[in-house]
Amino acid sequence: MKTKPVLAAITTLAVAGALAACSGGDGGGGTDGGGGGGDASNCTNEIKNPDAPVVTLWAWYPNSETVVDNFNENNDDVQVCWTNAGAGGEEYDKLQTAISAGSGAPDVVMVEADRIAPFQAQGGLIDLTDLGYEDVKDNFSEGAWKDVSVGDAVYGAPIDGGPMGMIYRTDIFDQYGLTPPTTWDELEATAQELKDAGGPVFASFAANQPATLTAYFYGNGAQPFTYDPSNEGEIGINLNSPEIKEVLDYWDGLVDQGLVGTEDQFTPEYIAGVINGDYATYLSAAWAPGYLQGAGVGEGADAGVWAVASMPQWDPNSPIAINWGGSAFAVTSQASNPELAAKVAFGVYADQASLDEGWQNQIIFPLNNTVLDSEEFLNYEVPFFDGQQANKDVYVPAANAYEGMTYTPLGQYYYSALTDQIAAIIEGSATGSEAADALQEDVVAYAEEQGFTVTQ
């Protein structure tokens, strides 16, 4: 059994304000019902079969109502009552309140993958292994399932992900005679060449993107955490490994040489810089084109100038695919009928019409193999990338090769601590290696204060 201090820490972390991985949701698509919890009388959508049992659902994607309507039209034995309880942190705060109170949670809830472990550790989510997982496990890759699992148990039905690539401006690359780098060494050399020629910075190293940097760690073969709840409060923390120090020292060097920008991302100022050509590339996830277009990128003078290439590798002979973001549907422990709730979790956003509508409108990058394997999806000429078959070229191979991450109940504290260390690197008060050592000391101390037994 975990000690009470561990559970108290997890409760604190679940409502912490640290930045988490983005998965492309913008909180639109429906009236904010204020978190209707298990109350099926407060549905944003229309119930198609009022005689069927109802499963309540919180979800924030812009096309949630369309997806729910598709499910309700195709299922006579269960209906979904959907509420937009807010996107990301807003929803998580409401879910945390419901878990702490023991009531008020929906039957099914949308969560980002890195939020599953904290809610699971409080007993807020239920294992789906025996509730239909076996029927759908072949629909997704092992990496997709790992991201929604805690130990050997499955706590989420995958929806979408963020296989990463290097989005770049073809106008800048053409002007300066550049080619997309395939290794991190080549990236540094290309960035220096661009600077020497009077061009813009090559990329961005932002303090407010710890999830992206964590993906970079995995891309160098690091394993920052090991965690399995069956080991009763034990957690492995290895944040100053040689692989992580190499990544941090690398970015420290790019900052020192003035080869990358250090502005926070997802701000109006940053987006203005992207539009104005202040950055040659944007190292980001497959959901990024939808986000960028929503922010006004790819219009006017910078329309038709974007392309995407595979992420640089540390060892091109042993490439590692990385991922930033991704969401799932989880069943809460307050579900009145776990079997029906699991059917909804596995079935919503799983029918062909919903999947097609999602990717065709660049709302999500679906992880369902029926989409990833389809010729229509593979050969799709992405308008944002001026007709490039980006799925075939970059994103589908990355999604198929991705092996997953290990998330822990300490994830949000770790993000906050890593944000502090990125800031220290940017301001020059710590080298990359020093930041890694400080990060390890900070997170280990916090974990031990909360009652975890830490291993390496």
TrEMBL record:
Keywords assigned: Signal
InterPro entries linked to this entry: Bact_solute-bd_prot1, SBP
Transmembrane segments: none
Pfam families on file: SBP_bac_1
Secretion signal span: 1-20
PANTHER family tied to this protein: ARABINOSE-BINDING PROTEIN-RELATED, DIACETYLCHITOBIOSE BINDING PROTEIN DASA
Protein's name in the database: Sugar ABC transporter substrate-binding protein
Classification lineage: Bacteria, Bacillati, Actinomycetota, Actinomycetes, Micrococcales
